[in-house]
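Lay summary. Proteins are chains of building blocks that fold into shapes, and those shapes determine what they do. In this project we predict the shape from the chain. Here is one chain we studied, written as its sequence of building blocks.
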Amino acid sequence: MKCSVNNGSMSSSARKRIVILGGGFGGVYAALHLEKLLARQPEVEICLISRDNFFLFTPMLHEIAASDLEITNIVNPLRKLLRRVKVIVGEVERIDLPNRRVVVSHGHGSGDNHSHRLEYDHLVLALGSVTNFFNLPGFAELALTMKSLPDAVQLRARIIRRLEEANSECSLGDRQALLTFVVAGGGFAGVETVAALNDFAREALRFYPNLSEQMLRVVLVHPGAVILPELGESLGRYAQQVLAQRGVEIRLQTRVTSMAENEVVLTDDSSIPASTLVWTAGTMPNPLLSSLPCPKECGRVQVNEFLEIRGWPGVWAVGDCAFVPDINHPGNSHPPTAQHAIREGRVVAQNIALALAGRPLNLFSFKTIGLLASLGRRTGVARIFGFNFSGFFAWWLWRTIYLSKLPGLDKKVRVAFDWTLDLLFRKDVCAVHDLPARAHPRDHSRQMDGRNGNYGRTAAVETTRLN
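And here is the predicted shape, written in a compact code that computers can read:
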């Protein structure tokens, strides 16, 4: 039974309420800065609504899949990060802009969910993006994704399970499909995922006496002429060369069109016998945005140069769900990257504080500092302030920069310690996170494709079990 709780209108009283939807980069950094800016204003309440009770540092997600890092080392509890912010773990069911309120639900299942109506004076949309399968049949059920913590855990467990099955003498007929892994999408997520997957699988092979490296096939499918197009042709070709030398087969100017349990079909009508497809070939803004009565561009809500949604005063948007105009290049928008979301969160916090004080707002202007990608085995590619770097130095830059950005000193120390141990010991090949579920049966119907900052349902114990 749903129980509806009305928390009351804050606009009718002296106290103001700021509601932030999403626990990703944009939402968390907006909350962090609002907490600092409004520390001496107890009459202002800040609420952050997230489907998880933690903040996920997504740039290191592929290292979870490769068993380079422990699962909890790249997540920070929201209640630890945000001391003065009211954290509500739940799912956003509806956003009612005309009445200035949102409906949030939480609970263990459909039969005992509780629904809350939160009225706001200022609303920040930081809902992020979800995987876009482009309505390709069977992909949502069969393909793996790489946008959430359960995704990385599931991929690691899938690799180990496939090696276990292929090592069995009774699987000779299915061995080729079991030992073939296809990654669709040659952007940052796809390249880092295929590099991590390839390194992990090849290193794990030594524990399986009936298998050899010649049996393993790792394929990267990319629709463009060169992978990592954001970094330019030279770095993209360098990345292709490195991956090819390590045994990755790269199929350029090709797309995946269909998938069965043991087959992946490409646009050139060729097929790859494979039972594992990792889909990193597309995202789209959170579906909740589609019902909002505000202007949109490519599914993202349009904001002005102050990050306020056009025509809706007091409603702001940041991150992947916002179409943010680039004031230095009219007609263009800022890319939906983490470094932009962090700065947008900071500026939107400043502008909300200024709006509460009745002062002029700040313009948002930011230029990309750099782009980096890890290719595994102490190799990477990077473009920093227009300069290209590759090899060990780029990999060192990747680790140094992202380690410095990881919130929390304790998490920095743990990650650095894990990286040091990884130099000394072999990777762990225990599939402990793929143990049979013992949760309530209704948990099995929950989808595992929720994203940090988004509101799809996931399994009840995300960091320790996968259905």
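What the prediction tells us: The longest strand covers residues 44-50.
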